[in-house]
Amino acid sequence: MRKINKIIIHCSATPEGRAVTVQEIDKWHRAKGWNGVGYHFVIGLNGEVWSGRNVELAGAHTEGQNANSIGVCYVGGCDKAMKAKDTRTAAQKASLIKLVKELKTKYPNATIHGHNEFAAKACPSFNVQSWLLQNGLK
């Protein structure tokens, strides 16, 4: 079993309201030469949580952090002009809270981060640390 010490939140960097499936993200990642979807979980526009990469396998989502982390991605993160925007639907927000709570129960020592804490990117297009405080997760 991998030692998980981080849960890292991402966005798919797709326009607001555009439905994207885990299978589509898998195709994007394979086109980059990866061996499949890099995220362990993907949250669709309707809040459905899809399994991506098996959690026992290292992800392909945050350079330098994949060996000991779980990658969670919500669909969206950009406005229609492809500028960073928190586009999470109410259903996505609720599912993200539920999933993070479940992961924290399973991996109690894991810290929670946004991708932008490890890379010069806007992803996940919201401040994860503030969100954690606002939702009593920190």
Describe the structure.
The structure is a single chain. With 138 residues, this protein is an alpha/beta fold. It is built from three helices and seven strands, in the order ββαββββαβα. The strands form two sheets. Strands 4-3-5-1-7 form a five-stranded mixed β-sheet, covered by helices on one side. The chain has a two-stranded parallel ribbon with strand order 2-6. The chain starts with 5 loop residues before the first strand and ends with a helix.
Keywords:
138 residues; alpha/beta; Lysozyme-like; 5-stranded mixed sheet; two-stranded parallel ribbon; 3 helices; 7 strands; 19% strand; globular
Give a brief description:
The chain is α/β, with parallel strands linked by helices.
Distance between the termini: 25 Å
Q: Which secondary-structure class do the elements indicate? A: alpha/beta
In CATH, what is the homologous superfamily? Peptidoglycan recognition protein-like
CATH fold group:
Lysozyme-like
Sequence of strands across the biggest β-sheet: 4-3-5-1-7
Order of helices and strands: EEHEEEEHEH
- Taking pLDDT < 50 over at least 5 consecutive residues as the criterion, the unreliable ranges are none
Query: How many helical stretches?
Result: 3
User: Could you name the CATH class?
Assistant: Alpha Beta
Q: How many strands, which pairing sense, and closed or not: the largest β-sheet?
A: 5 strands, mixed
